[in-house]
Structure formats: C-alpha cells, structure tokens
C-alpha cells in the first residue's frame, strides 16, 4: 500500500473526553487522506488519490480501523472533506461518509477542505502566522481561495471559500498583500500569482493529520450533523468548457 511516511504510525495519547473516537476521510484533492483515532491511539494514511480514490477509499478505511481494533460503530462521528475541490472527489467522500454513518447510526462532520490546507500550513510554519490565505488550483485558470485566522484554539473563516479567476485573485492580493499563502495554486501558476513578501507553503506535509485535528475541533464545537443532511460544497457548476471556450482561454493565455 503506497502511503506517506506517517501512514499506519500510531501516536499514543491519554484517552480523554477531549479525544473522541473519530474517523476522517478526504478525497477533495489529488491525495487521498484517511485518519482515525480511538483507545488513545491515532493512525493516518496519505496516498495518491484522484481517479484511484473511489477504489481505494473503503479499503484504506477498513485497514486503519482493523489496525485500531475498531469497527465503524465504535466511532463517535465520521468526518469528511466537503469541499471545495475536485467534483468526483467531493462526491466520493460525501457518499462514503454518509453510507458509513447511516450504517453505524453516527453523525457526520463536514470539514472545510481549504481549512485543512491552512491547518497543515500553520503546523509547517510552527504557528508563525495567525492568518493563512489558501489558494488551490481549480484548473481552467481558476483558483479555490479562502482566508483563515487561528484564534482561541480554532480556525475562524475570514473569507469563505470562493472560486476566483487567476487575474482577479492576483489583483486582490496586490491590493491587500497576504503574510502567508498555502496551497497547490502556488506551484500551478508560479509567477502569475504574485504573493509579494508572503511566506509560501506550496505543498502539504500531512493532510491526514490536519484533517483529524479539524475533525476533533468540529466535534468539540458541536458541529456534528445528521448524515442525511451532508452535502458537498460545489463552487463550480460548470466543470467542462466548450471547444470555443478552450480556444479562447488558450488565446488569452498566449
């Protein structure tokens, strides 16, 4: 099983009411992230996702739970990255989370997929920045962007996730320079997305760990919902371009 260096490495901790039994999944990017904690132990997995996610997600969940010695019914909630992100990936995570939660009679925790990036960036920068701007490549010369502030032990949304044209986000940041920017758009667009003197965090270190931290925060904040109410966060209704639109985009880029 291909995985990150953090895969299947238990982290032992005291079992307390503040450390609930949780399963968390995310397939909103090209990486599949799964994490679970119970009995004072934590396991997490990050591996290639994308087109493989729909086939790999359930086996990855079964593997982690087996290593923990738990069934889904032992989890107090199922967290999932609800978006924004890849259309098929969002549907996959939502459907799997709903199915597992309904079968086990448990609630779900929808997690902001851009906040996962912000949390990972904060860990990488050792908390140097309270505010993190996230910019994820949305393809078609567009970016999923949001702004988050760490305060009182949790993330606050300063600017909700939105779909930005590349030029519009670049102009926005030139007018209001960020201090820290994280996300795949940094590598995807390079100098086309100027960030001034901001600290740049173009790659994630451990998406599964950040996902689980946010899941625990959401649980403690009472954000669990009925699985029947779970929905992906789609910011783009149109996922394909006509031939004319593709040619116009190429001409504009040239």
UniProtKB/TrEMBL annotation:
Which Pfam families does this UniProt record tie to the protein?
TsaD
Name-wise, this protein is tRNA (Adenosine(37)-N6)-threonylcarbamoyltransferase complex dimerization subunit type 1 TsaB
- Transferase as UniProt keyword: yes
Q: Extract the GO molecular function terms from the UniProt entry.
A: tRNA N(6)-L-threonylcarbamoyladenine synthase activity
What's the EC number here? 2.3.1.234
Q: State the organism named in the record.
A: Aquincola tertiaricarbonis
Where do the Gcp-like domain residues begin and end? Answer: 54-170
Sorted alphabetically, the keyword list is: Acyltransferase, Transferase
Q: Which Gene3D superfamilies match?
A: 3.30.420.40
Query: Is this entry keyworded Acyltransferase?
Result: yes
Q: What start and end residues bound the annotated signal peptide? A: none
């Amino acid at each position: 099983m291909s995985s990150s260096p953090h895969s299947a490495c238990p982290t032992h901790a005291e079992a307390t009411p503040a450390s609930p039994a949780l399963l968390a999944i995310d397939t909103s990017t090209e990486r599949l992230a799964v994490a679970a904690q119970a009995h004072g132990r934590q396991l997490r997995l990050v591996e290639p996702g994308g087109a493989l996610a729909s086939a790999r997600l359930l086996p990855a969940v079964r593997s982690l739970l087996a290593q923990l010695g738990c069934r889904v019914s032992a989890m107090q909630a199922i967290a999932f990255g609800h978006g924004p992100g890849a259309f098929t990936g969002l549907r996959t995570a939502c459907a799997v989370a709903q199915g597992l939660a309904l079968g086990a009679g448990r609630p779900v925790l929808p997690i902001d997929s851009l906040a996962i990036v912000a949390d990972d960036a904060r860990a990488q920068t050792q908390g140097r920045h309270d505010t993190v701007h996230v910019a994820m490549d949305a393809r078609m010369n567009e970016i999923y962007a949001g702004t988050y502030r760490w305060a009182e032990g949790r993330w606050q949304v300063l600017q909700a996730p939105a779909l930005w044209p590349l030029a519009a986000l670049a102009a926005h940041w030139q007018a209001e320079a960020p201090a820290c920017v994280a996300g795949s758009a940094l590598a995807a667009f390079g100098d086309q997305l100027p960030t001034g003197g901001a600290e740049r965090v173009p790659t994630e270190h451990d998406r599964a760990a950040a996902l689980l931290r946010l899941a625990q925060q959401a649980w403690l904040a009472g954000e669990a919902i009925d699985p029947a109410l779970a929905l992906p966060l789609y910011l783009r209704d149109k996922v394909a371009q006509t031939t004319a639109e593709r040619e116009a985009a190429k001409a504009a880029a040239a």
